[in-house]
Design goal:
By secondary structure, the chain is an alpha/beta fold. It is built from 9 helices and 14 strands.
Amino acid sequence: MIRLSAFADEISADLNEQIAVLRSENIHFIDLRGVWDKNVLDLTDQQIMEIRQKLDAHGIEVAAIASPIGKIPIDAPFDEHLQRFERAIALAQFFQTPFIRIFSFYPPVAEGDVGGGKEIVDPAIWRNEVLRRLRELTIRASNANLILLHENEKDIYGDTTARCINLLQNINDPHFQAIFDPANFIQCDQTPYPDAYQELRPWLHYMHVKDALADGTVVAAGEGVARWPELLQQLRMNGYDSFFSLEPHLALTRLRNPSNDCYSQSIGNMNSWSSSAFTPTRTKQR
């Protein structure tokens, strides 16, 4: 069964407004990334308690801790980052979600020879260090009975289909799985469907509902080249049983102009592809 979630900090920094829009769209889950202009890992215990109380009061659960873990240069100190990861573990346990979103680190950039621009150092040089760090994170997640979800973010080590598969095969642990973000793949000149989907399917545990034009411009799901209608049909045929998370990365007009709300637009597009695309549910996958 597909459960619908959303990155509500794209609605507003204000928690009450986030909740209001989620309720208006009949969304019962949230990818907790930020509130009050603070990253989820930087929120105080008191703020975390307030979030939990308000979400509970409105019947909204946390689908995943959308952490920024791994979204730092690969040559940056790791020990301090591990401390932040421990905070992510604590938050996942507190909100009773099995999922923590992570990344696979940015390779360094070097000054280009022409025009003073920057160019990314060959990611392969940093493969072993990326694997070392991800294995450490995975061990800690496994000890806490949690699942790390690797997002194919542009410019990190694992931004192409081949490097994502390389990481997943080498880590080879059920506590290290994949988020599938079609728009990010498009921005890296990858073909999300059918190519990337078929290759990543064994590890696919989470979907980001995003789309992009061929030039990388992010658009509402179904309006780019991700082939969302076919992708959704294939996911259903393959028995996909997890979250679809709305992360449109588009300017929102919030509650003042719902007709232009990209959350409504994305949901409407998806429901037009299937008469029963999403069944509201509060059942969380463990």
